[in-house]
Specification:
Length: about 300
């Protein structure tokens, strides 16, 4: 059987000679198939390149957006950090005010000020305590039965260290867990490690040793049922049974016991019950200048 084919005629432009080329059908089909495959491959390559270019463009756009968001986040983080510092300063100021004037406050909502809890003073208690501070003087304290001392030098009316009040007397949030509330039976006064601690009144040392929660603790019996406690000390310079005089050096500020930062924990006990030491410190000498200026009415 004779094979079918295509005839291609070529004519020479100068000589006029004709030349016939026989091309089999299957060769033409193969060429067409190869051309189709080439077109499909080229289309796939172009589509792949276009898709890759689109992805690169999207990636660059996302990268620019991510850089913009990162810059905004860093800016917001800086603003939040500044706001946190301001809130911490305001909280410390509020604590100092409440300690200075015995203003009792309660927190409505979350216990953390940063969590938008609203700090609301108890009006009746604030007015009562303010009237007490306006009307009370040292003679009144002396004449109160629970506050009779052996002599004027036995009144705990001296600041034990030169520092600022950083923690008040009364109910507070647990500083270690941040949850629950506990009774703070004294006041905390800021001080660096090694700051000298002076006894606030004449008396006899009845305890000068380590205590689990208080760390290095000195307890002085000032007479009349009054005791002064000095806790978290780094060094103790007195011993049990020793007689001490007002302003005498008894130790140094430290971080012993249950503490988060160096400071002096100072308590005043009357007939075995802890009292707010600020009612004595308010009339004491060596009062820090910042406390006098900041809390004057």
């Amino acid at each position: 059987m004779k094979q079918e084919y295509f005839v291609v005629v070529l004519a020479h432009s100068l000589r006029g000679r004709l030349r016939r080329i026989h091309i089999p059908h299957h060769a033409v089909y193969v060429i067409l198939a190869l051309a189709l495959v080439g077109c499909i491959s080229m289309f796939g390559f172009v589509a792949s390149y276009a898709r890759m270019a689109w992805k690169v463009a999207n990636y660059n756009a996302l990268k620019r957006e991510a850089d913009s968001l990162r810059a905004r986040y860093q800016k917001l983080q800086k603003e939040v950090s500044q706001t946190d510092r301001q809130l911490a300063d305001l909280e410390l100021y509020a604590t100092e005010v409440s300690v200075a004037y015995g203003i009792k406050q309660k927190l409505e909502g979350p216990s953390d000020i940063a969590a938008e809890g609203k700090l609301v003073p108890s009006f009746a208690e604030s007015v009562q305590d303010y009237d007490f501070l306006r009307s009370t003087d040292v003679l009144t304290l002396l004449n109160t039965p629970a506050r009779r001392f052996r002599s004027a030098a036995s009144i705990p009316n001296l600041w034990p260290i030169d520092g600022r009040l950083i923690g008040g007397f009364g109910d507070r949030v647990n500083p270690f867990s941040g949850e629950g509330r506990e009774m703070h039976s004294g006041v905390d006064i800021s001080g660096k490690i090694g700051t000298p601690i002076h006894v606030t009144a004449d008396g006899i040392v009845i305890f000068a040793d380590m205590n689990a929660g208080y760390g290095r603790l000195v307890v002085v019996d000032n007479g009349g049922g009054v005791e002064t406690w000095y806790a978290h000390m780094s060094k103790i310079y007195v011993h049990s049974g020793q007689e001490v005089r007002r302003a005498e050096l008894i130790g140094e500020v430290g971080m012993s016991g249950r503490v988060t930062a160096p400071h002096l924990h100072y308590e005043v006990h009357v007939n075995g019950r802890p009292m707010n030491p600020y009612q004595y410190l308010a009339h004491a000498s060596m009062l820090p200048q910042a406390s006098k200026d900041a809390f004057s009415f």
